[in-house]
Amino acid sequence: MKKGERITGVLLLIASAYIINTALGYGLMSRNQPGPGFMAFWAGLLLAILSMLLIANTFRGKYKDKGEVFNKDSLKYAVIFIGISLLVSLLMRFVGMVIGVGILSALIHHFLADDKSIKKTLLIGVSVTAAIYIIFIFVLDVYLLRGVFGF
Amino acid sequence: MLEVISNLIYGLSVAATPINIMYAFIGVVSGLVIGALPGLGPTAGLAVLLPLTFGANPVSGIILLAGIYYGAMFGGGLTAILINIPGAPSAVMTALDGYPMAQQGKAGPAIGMSTFASFIGGTISLILFMFLSPVLAKVALSFGPPEYFALMVMGLTTLAAMTGDSQIKGFISAVFGLFLASIGTDLVSGLPRFSFGSPYLFSGMNFIPVAMGIFGIAELLSKDNSAEEILRSRELRNAKIEVKSLFPTFRDWMDCKWAIVRGSFIGFFVGMLPGAGATIASFISYGFEKNISKNPDSFGKGNIAGVASPESANNSASTGAFVPLLSLGVPGSASTAILLGALMMFGLTPGPRLFQSNPDFIWGLIGSMYIGNFILLIVVILSLPLFVKMLQVEPSTMNAVVISFILIGAYSLGNTMFYVYLTLGFGVLGYFMKKLQIPGAPLVLGLVLGDLLENSMRQSLIMSRGSMSIFFTRPISATLLALCVVYLIYPHLKRRIKKKKVA
Predict the structure, then answer these.
(1) I need a labelling partner for A12 at 20 to 30 A (CA). Which of B30, B37, B110, B201 fits?
(2) Complex prediction ipTM
(3) Are B171 and A46 in contact (CB < 8 Å)?
(4) Which of B193, B396, B398, B449 to mutate to test the interface with A (most CBs of A within 10 A)?
(5) Per residue in A88-100, is it b (16+ CB within 10 Å) or e — as a string?
(6) Does A109 touch chain B (CB under 8 A)?
């Protein structure tokens, strides 16, 4: 955990340096009133101070090591989940949003469920597709990205 | 008094249209399910189900969201009682006595009492809300930009300081939210800030992808098919509840009547405070009830007052949280920050003027809360066995449905895949924040309040010709800022004094 806080602190320090530098470029004050970079500058400065405090606190023993924060299984789960979501999102340009979320829900279910039966996976994919179509297109009349199937 | 009653009648007439009743029903039922599922609490529920309001008029939309909010607040208690897994942090105290009651074969009376206590708590707090909000709004009409600036700083400070284990992490989250709020074209100079050339960022960082990512996707990513999740659905399969067992006995009512009233008042006033919210309200209410009880040892072993007190408090707190949101335009929690964002999405500006400019909205919402509370009571009593069955759904199936809703919602914001990728990106950020115990609520609040904060600061400095002294020379803003300082220093001072005493 301490390691996590130190890495976070360093990353935030780098981010705050970028924010401060860019905000200074926008200008802090103009005609006696805050300029476009005023708020971002102060946010960056506060972020820098807070990240230094975060790092300092790890050396003062404020944060305890609570074992592995990112265990292998939980990280694998998160990577699969976000990976599938990202891939299907890219695919949505071709198959459309309605079919896309059907594929997404089927894949998410199949990869993460204990019971990996194809029948159940298909059932979930089809049910989600139908539900999304009925709720968003039929009832709420929301425009969703269309694919090669015309919806 | 008469004015409030006539306004309420008007509000009920606005809310009692078939379409609004349907929205309240959908909101309450969805909230119940989401609140009962461990992990997805009221905040994530609101973020995930926001897309359901697309296409709805503001009154119907906010009725749906309010229904989700208090439905989820109640739903959290169901699994706390049945299987000792609170659906939301605000239901932790309910589990202390609710679960022992279930183990003693009294799950029915525990759920029944929690339902009635929530209903009574919700109703009492609504009455207080009706009378207090307009008064507070009238006071707030005299507020100028410096007072608003101080009020928003106070909202952010208290939330950042109170959420999570570390104040520093809370403030990092809030300040990062403020930075996100500064993205977009500057209204005065027309300069695009931190937009990286993307036209989608010219109009600023939309709060919905951020909220859906930080609360919705991050929740899904950190919720694997753990043994606890599987155990939950198995245990729920074994839970047997009969409708007739839900009605508390005369003795139960006698044991709980004052606990409910006290819980309702504590909940409402604690709920109004920025950063406090339903969880703290339920903790205070439970602790208070135990302290004044003639039989404090029975708490934690299945005392029905230990169920009634936190349940009335957390439902009452959820209504109390609407007071600063609607009358001052400053939300005090993550859930109300999402509601504020939703109101802005509908083109409404919460704050004292809303009571004058949109009375149909305000009083329609209040009317719908009465109706929603009643719907909640009826739905739970009539269909609890069905709900218990719905909660048996496997986590993988639920996650598949939730991610679909999130992505559809993200796309519909601007009919562009940019928001889909942005939501996924914030989901990853939220996942790391969750793992590092950095609270997400201050970030969302910072983002939602950032624009208003910057504008009120600008207006104040124009008024004072660039002098910061304006914030400290006006009594209300000076008091509010002083309170922020006290709020920040007090815990540290208290700790030091304690250490000295021990030494």
Answers:
(1) B201
(2) 0.92
(3) yes
(4) B396
(5) bbeebeebbbbbb
(6) yes
